[in-house]
Amino acid sequence: MLRSLKFLLLMVVCADRTSSMDILDPVLCAAVINSRISVPALFSHEIHFGVAGPSITAVLRGAPLKAGFFIYITSIFQFTVRPEIRGTEDPQRKNHFDFPGETNDQAARLILAKLGLESVRDVKFIAIGDAKARVIAMEAGQIAAAANNSDVAAELVGEGFRNLLHSVDVFPMPFSGTAVNDRSIRENPDLIKRWLRSHVRALVFIRQRPDEPGQIVTKYPKVNPHVAGRAVVQVRQFMSPDHPAVLPRRG
After folding, report:
1. Most distant CA atoms of the chain, gap in Å
2. What angle do CA 89, 170, 52 make, to 5 degrees?
3. Comparing 8-17, 52-61, 105-114, 186-195, which segment has the lowest mean pLDDT?
4. What is the pLDDT of residues 96-154, one digit of tens each?
5. What are the distances in angstroms from CA 123 to CA 88, 99, 167?
6. What is the mean pLDDT of the chain?
7. How far is CA 152 from CA 18, 26, 62, 79, 155, in A?
8. Residue 59 to residues 33, 70, 122, 177, Cα–Cα distance (Å)
9. pTM of this prediction?
10. Strand intervals (E) in 44-113
């Protein structure tokens, strides 16, 4: 189910079947975002599009997949901490940090290093679960901090929690991309072009009508309407203003 602003473009694409954008089948929209099943589903051709993060790991091991079209030019995690934590000295040794794995894990470890903390020596990691479980764990005091997506961070800040650091400072890599099977590229290039076209149109829509995406995402279950608008404004700044959804060139 779509409920994370990591997939803001996809949320816009799938929200309104009557819009002028080139909308895709909502079943595909729902299936693509589960990172745990994305790679197996791509392998078995149950879906056409998957999550880029775990797919990149699979590609490095020889999987016939391609990843690209990253929505954001950098990761968009906020390192959110409990209200009593005021600086780098407070979390050391005595607190527990969520350890969700995947890019959240990488971002959290890099942020801790930026704060001068050793991720193994100074803190204890606990596997909590999805975003909702993370919120509950932080509210209950079970964990002291976590690397959260912008919508979750905005919700927690509204409850008095604090954002200590943004992952853009330590993890500036393209984020929230799409993966496809090589066979789909060969056999169904028109569908891939349609997918890309719809996302580029959604990106243009978000830039040209900045007030509307926040209203669109509130149509989804479990999206807090009170924080959606603020979170959309925050993540929009990390979309490339020049060349939409492509890897930046380095050299």
Report:
1. 56
2. 130
3. 8-17
4. 666 555 678 888 889 989 988 887 788 888 877 777 888 888 899 888 888 888 888 88
5. 12, 11, 18
6. 77
7. 29, 24, 34, 11, 5
8. 18, 16, 33, 14
9. 0.76
10. 50-51, 65-68, 78-81, 96-98
CB–CB of 158/231 below 8 Å? Answer: no
Q: Which two tokens stand for residue 75?
A: 């990761």
Structure tokens at 214: 């926040």
Contacts of 200 (CB under 8 A, 6+ apart): 244, 245
Q: How far is CA 90 from CA 77, 119, 141, 209, in A?
A: 20, 14, 15, 42
CA distances from 207 to 32, 203, 238 (A): 24, 6, 12
33, with CB counted inside 10 A (0-12, 13-18, 19+), is: buried
Give every CB contact of residue 107 below 8 A, 6+ residues apart in sequence.
75, 77, 79, 147, 167, 170, 171
